[in-house]
Amino acid sequence: MVTHTFKARSYEVFLGRKLSSTIDDKKLDFYAYIVITGDDEHELTIKFLHPDSVIPNNSYDPVIKKAMLYIPHEQAYQFSWYIDILRNEKPVYIYVSSTHPSSNSVYTGKEPVGEGE
């Protein structure tokens, strides 16, 4: 089992009407994706899927330091949550797992209660 936690260093956002790629010989359609890069060159890509897209399993490959997190269309509203965290919080951490990739996640460090933005 390989798990890894890394601190987010930068991110990129890609938006489009209907973007696509292929995974396991199946077409994957999505509206947007976010690529988060860590200090140690690990990457997490979060794809926000189109309603008629297949929903692949999340993944993490420790050899190439890349992880995927797929958000079903029904949860596309979370896009703004991820952007808000990446823009306004510090530090931001990424957790990835090759054994339990469904646990791939983005989270913040501890902050004082009532601190505000």
Structure write-up:
By secondary structure, the chain is mainly beta. The protein has one domain. Helices cover 9% and strands 51% of the residues. The protein is built from one helix and seven strands, in the order E-E-E-E-E-H-E-E. It has a seven-stranded mixed β-sheet, covered by helices on one side. Strand 4 and strand 5 form a beta hairpin. The protein is globular and about 45 Å long. The N and C termini lie far apart (38 Å). 25% of the residues are buried.
Short account of what is shown:
With 117 residues, the protein is mainly beta. It is built from 1 helix and 7 strands.
Helix-strand blueprint:
Layout lengths: L2 E21 L2 E13 L4 E7 L9 E3 L4 E6 L6 H11 L3 E6 L7 E4 L9
Parallel strand pairs: 3-5
Antiparallel strand pairs: 1-2, 1-6, 2-3, 4-5, 6-7
> Which structural class matches the secondary elements?
mainly beta
Ranges with pLDDT <50 over ≥5 residues?
none
Order of helices and strands: EEEEEHEE
What would you report as the Rg, rounded to the nearest angstrom?
14 Å
Tally of discrete structural domains: 1
Name the features.
single chain; 117 residues; mainly beta; 7-stranded mixed beta sheet; 1 helix
